[in-house]
């Protein structure tokens, strides 16, 4: 379902009142509509269809590793609705040369990142979508992010990075996994 902007705007107006602000003062009068528009972009993954993103495939006869490293991630933690940001590394070993476009791996990350998320679920959803739609011999997703809910409030630990991984199929083989992790770490 697309983001219901009038409803979000009404909630933001309430939120401003809740924190003791005057939503009708000059600087804030357009803020509810502005935030609603921003949320439509921040949560655009609510509408994304991973099957459709991965529907473009080619037969290239390449049955070795394909890895896109350092994909920028901007997501929103579902506990505090604050951003978490960092990098995703997405790799797979095709089966029968079934390959997708490189940009589709980044689009897949965005499809799941642009929703209220936790990093663990984001990581496994990307890996599971690769398995379901590309049927590769193996897949790996590693995500490293800084969570603003841990830096600008709460425990206040700027610089702390959370690293999560999901491995599927032959990528779980220790030697293969170690080789790919070496490529990811660079
Ligand atoms: N596992 C996991 N935890 C997350 C993620 N994003 C935020 N969190 C954590 O979610 C937890 C929510 O804990 P609560 O005790 O319910 O909330 P809180 O009182 O605001 O907790 P503090 O952040 O410790 O102040 C916190 O420990 C956050 O660090 C995530 O992607 N994965
Ligand atoms: Zn949080």
TrEMBL record:
InterPro entries: GTP-CH-I_C/QueF, GTP-CH-I_N, GTP_CycHdrlase_I, GTP_CycHdrlase_I_CS, GTP_CycHdrlase_I_dom. Pathway: Cofactor biosynthesis; 7,8-dihydroneopterin triphosphate biosynthesis; 7,8-dihydroneopterin triphosphate from GTP: step 1/1. This is GTP cyclohydrolase 1. Belongs to the GTP cyclohydrolase I family. Pfam families: GTP_cyclohydroI. Keywords: GTP-binding, Hydrolase, Metal-binding, Nucleotide-binding, One-carbon metabolism, Zinc. Gene3D superfamilies: 1.10.286.10, 3.30.1130.10. Residues 9-184 form the GTP cyclohydrolase I domain. Homopolymer. It comes from the Bacteria. Its EC number is 3.5.4.16. GO terms for cellular component: cytoplasm. GO terms for biological process: one-carbon metabolic process; tetrahydrobiopterin biosynthetic process; tetrahydrofolate biosynthetic process. It catalyses: GTP + H2O = 7,8-dihydroneopterin 3'-triphosphate + formate + H(+). Zn(2+) binds at residues 77, 80, 149. One of its GO terms (molecular function) is zinc ion binding. The keyword Secreted does not apply.
């Amino acid at each position: 379902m697309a983001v219901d902007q009038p409803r979000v705007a009404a909630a933001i107006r309430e939120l401003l009142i809740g924190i003791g602000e005057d939503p009708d003062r000059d600087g804030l009068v357009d803020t509810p509509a502005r935030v609603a528009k921003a949320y439509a972009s921040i949560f655009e993954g609510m509408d994304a269809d991973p099957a459709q993103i991965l529907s473009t495939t080619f037969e290239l006869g390449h049955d070795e590793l394909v890895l896109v490293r350092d994909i920028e991630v901007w997501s929103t933690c579902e506990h505090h609705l604050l951003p978490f940001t960092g990098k995703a590394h997405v790799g797979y070993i095709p089966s029968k040369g079934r390959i997708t476009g490189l940009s589709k791996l980044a689009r897949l990350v965005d499809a799941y990142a642009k929703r209220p998320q936790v990093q663990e679920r984001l990581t496994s959803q990307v890996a599971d979508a690769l398995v379901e739609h590309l049927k590769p011999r193996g897949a790996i997703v590693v995500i490293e992010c800084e969570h603003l809910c841990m830096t600008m409030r709460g425990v206040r630990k700027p610089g702390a990075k959370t690293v999560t991984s999901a491995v599927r199929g032959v990528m779980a083989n220790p030697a293969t996994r170690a080789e790919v992790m070496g490529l990811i770490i660079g």
